[in-house]
Amino acid sequence: MDKKFTITIHDDNNFKQINLHKFVKKAVAYAVVFLMTLAFIAVTTILYLDYRVDAVAQKKNKLEEAYKILNEHNNELKLSIAQTQKNLDDKKDELQSVSDKLEDIEDLIGLNPPTNMPLIQRADMTKVTSQQIAVLMKLVPNGSPIPYNGITSKFGYRIHPTLHIKEFHRGDDLKAELNTPVRATADGMVEYAGYHKTSGYGNLVILDHSFGFKTFFGHLNKIVIKSGQFVKKGTIIAYTGNSGMSNGPHLHYEIRFIQRPLNPFYFIKWSVKNYKEIFEKEVNIPWQSLVTATSNLKVVTAPTQTQVQPSSPSVLSLKGK
User: Fold this and answer.
1) Cβ neighbours of residue 318 under 8 Å, at least 6 residues apart?
2) Which end of the chain has less neighbouring CB within 10 Å, N or C?
3) What is the pTM of this model?
4) What is the widest separation between alpha-carbon atoms in the chain?
5) What is the pLDDT of residue 126?
6) Are residues 240 and 182 in contact, defined by beta-carbon separation less than 8 angstroms?
7) Given the DSSP bridges, would you call strands 188-196 and 202-208 parallel, antiparallel or unpaired?
8) Separation of alpha carbons 225 and 69, rounded Å
9) Mean pLDDT, residues 265-281 taken together
10) How far is CA 297 from the centre of its chain?
11) Which of residues 132 and 262 earns the better pLDDT score?
């Protein structure tokens, strides 16, 4: 069997023949198949890698887009956190301001809550006590019945300006021009309204208030209310004058508690701002019992004007200016 094969190479001049063993032929064939296989594998691998690169690139793009969105959300979250923190700081400042104001109110009304008491409980305590203050300011005489311009004759012993004898002056004589409006200093019933001959007060109004308080307004020129009528604090009840035993226009203002005369000056200067002062200055009133009695009362914007049977007019034995 012939194990050789001949390769003939032609050119323009002649030709050549190369005799090769058939083993070489097989080797060349195997080499060609191997190279083709290798080329196929290479091309396939390149195509696969190119596909993978595209897939990775797409995934990268998606991740970059997701990162961008996440970053935007993160920035929004940072802004939200910053705004929330600012709101919390503002609320903290507001709460501190409220706490400071509560301390002022607590000091004003004499409260001394524990330092660890929640703010809401402190506010509830203040609210209740504020209602009590409002009730007292509504039902107990306070403030001046006329624009305050000073006192011509104070509460206490004095020489009577017309009788020229020493006597106990039960009220304050407030400076006032003729026909100055006189206003009620607390809610109450008109116990007496008219000319009182025996007291020397001339035209006189007596208001019967809650909890045993009464107010007297003497030497009036004109009275505009009637006995048995209910009047609210601030209501005009009369106009100042010079009636009775008087040496000039003024207002004799008197406050009594269970018929005991009190120094009106403390009540004229009494207001929410100096709420506690009167407790120390006017010691003839059981304030603690009074505050307790008002704990369940509440001031409304339009109180019911229910008339109560007024007590009998007081008999004034002492003469006044």
Assistant:
1) 167, 168, 170, 199
2) N
3) 0.59
4) 176
5) 62
6) yes
7) antiparallel
8) 79
9) 88
10) 22
11) 262
CA of 258: how far to CAs of 170, 200, 255, 262, 285, in Å? 14, 22, 10, 10, 10
Q: Which tokens go with 19?
A: 């005799």
For the stretch 300-311, pLDDT in tens is 654 433 333 333
Specify the fold of 139-293: Glucose Permease (Domain IIA) (2.70.70)
Give the 3-state DSSP-derived string for the chain, with helices as H, strands as E and coil as C.
CCCEEEEEEECCCCEEEEEEEHHHHHHHHHHHHHHHHHHHHHHHHHHHHHHHHHHHHHHHHHHHHHHHHHHHHHHHHHHHHHHHHHHHHHHHHHHHHHHHHHHHHHHHHCCCCCCCCCHHHHHHHHHHHHHHHHHHHHHCCCCCCCCCCCEEECCEEEECCCCCCEEEECCEEEECCCCCEEECCCCEEEEEEEEECCCCCEEEEEEECHHHEEEEEEEEEEECCCCCCEECCCCEEEEEECCCCCCCCEEEEEEEECCEEECHHHHHCCCCCCCCHHHHHCCCCCHHHHHHHCCCCCCCCCCCCCCCCCCCCCCCCCCCC
Cα torsion 300, 304, 306, 310: sign? positive
Q: 287 burial class (0-12, 13-18, 19+ CB within 10 angstroms)?
A: middle
Pick from 116, 112, 91: nearest CA to 102: 112
Distances in Å between the Cα of 139 and the Cα atoms of 29, 189, 212, 263, 288 are 126, 11, 10, 18, 16
pLDDT tens sequence across 183-237? 999 999 999 999 998 888 999 999 999 999 999 999 999 999 999 999 999 999 9
What pLDDT, in 10s, does the model give residues 29-56?
Answer: 888 888 899 888 988 999 888 888 888 8
Rounded distance between C-alpha atoms, residue 121 and residue 214, angstroms: 37
Give the integer Cα–Cα distance in Å for 206 and 254: 9
